[in-house]
Amino acid sequence: MTEPLASSTIPYSRVHPLMNEVAQQAYPTATLYVVPTPIGNTGDVTLRALHVLEMADAVACEDTRNTAQLLNRYGLSKNLIAAHQHNEREAADKLISRLQAGERIALVSDAGTPAVSDPGARIVDAVRRAGLRVVPLPGACAAIAALSASGLVDDRFHFIGFLPSKTKQRETLLASLCDMHGTLIFYEAPHRIADMVKALAVAFEPEREVVFARELTKLFEEVHRCKLSEAEAWLSADTHREKGEFVVLLQGAPEDVAEQDADAARILSILLEECSVKQAATLAAKITGAKKNALYEMALKMQADSCGNGEP
Ligand code: SAM
């Protein structure tokens, strides 16, 4: 929300000729409206978002100062209710009472779509459980913007969001993603991007395509695509590249992985009769060319399964 687009204090919602059309839709009372806000460029708010923000009796937001500033850019001033990750449950109770009294409340986060790696899901859950209506507005989301410009042609995608910061948990999660078909979408903070790329390079095949979507909609916007094996070098070639906000997209596993997995499982099961899990994974990696870590995880699982079946 840093790019200056307009200095006007006249609400856009009053001046745009399409606002009559926007207002044709029903905007029921006693409803929570989930409203995406820009991920950088203030111009990426929708006309409906402005309409709802303007008509809302209150705006529930992650950070009242940020939202006050954003609304001010659109010439709006609203009653704000703090609803962040540390008070979502209490905030939900407060919002439910107000909604039951017939108010329209807009829910926003600091940037992008609420509940997407942002607070909001618990509030929406509580409001729905209370039997109240929730209306989503489509709008800015870093993951979707990045995907649309990635050129990755997997038919599916999986939104992973932020990886765990603890090494072991991160490795376990990445190992579980190795065989997934479909583009994997990650969020990452600038101070962790280098570590994240290293972790991806260990967990996935070097020839997979990776896309860095950096500072989307902002001055230094950049979308770079390369092989995973080239990613660390690209990132470290310019110190500016480790700054700003990132979406990282990784090509999914090729469709024939299931067949490769079946081969690997067959080889591992033979080796596990004679060797330890570690030895079996090492030998199977040499035989199949697959990643040792993934084979190790597979061998552990096979061993656990066979123990669960009462086999030695
Ligand atoms: N709710 C937001 C959405 O809909 O995208 C995501 C919020 S999450 C707390 C913030 C993360 O989203 C950042 O660390 C980054 O990974 C990604 N992100 C947000 N804005 C971005 C931008 N302008 N360019 C690239 N990534 C961005």
Structural overview:
This protein is of the alpha/beta class and 312 residues long. The chain has three domains: 12-140, 3-Layer(aba) Sandwich (Cobalt-precorrin-4 Transmethylase, domain 1); 143-250, Methyltransferase, Cobalt-precorrin-4 Transmethylase, Domain 2 (2-Layer Sandwich); 257-308. Helix content is 43%, strand content 15%. The protein is built from 13 helices and ten strands. It has helices at 12-15, 19-22, 47-55, 64-73, 88-100, 121-129, 142-150, 167-177, 193-203, 228-236, 257-272, 277-288, 292-308, and strands spanning 31-34, 58-61, 80-82, 104-107, 133-136, 157-162, 183-188, 209-214, 222-227, 246-250. It has a five-stranded parallel sheet with strand order 3-2-4-1-5, with helices on both faces. A five-stranded mixed sheet has the order 6-7-10-8-9. Helix 11 packs across helix 13 (292-308) and helix 12 crosses helix 13 (292-308). It is elongated. Residues 1-8 have low confidence and may be disordered. The chain binds S-adenosylmethionine. S-adenosylmethionine binds at residues 39-40, 109, 111-113, 116-118, 141-143, 187-189, 213-218, 245-247.
In a nutshell, what does this entry contain?
It is built from 13 helices and 10 strands.
Which secondary structure elements does this structure contain, and how are they paired or packed?
Layout (H helix, E strand, L loop, with lengths): L11 H4 L3 H4 L8 E4 L12 H9 L2 E4 L2 H10 L6 E3 L5 H13 L3 E4 L13 H9 L3 E4 L5 H9 L6 E6 L4 H11 L5 E6 L4 H11 L5 E6 L7 E6 H9 L9 E5 L6 H16 L4 H12 L3 H17 L4
Helix pairs in contact: 5-6, 9-10, 11-12, 11-13, 12-13
Bound molecules: S-adenosylmethionine (SAM).
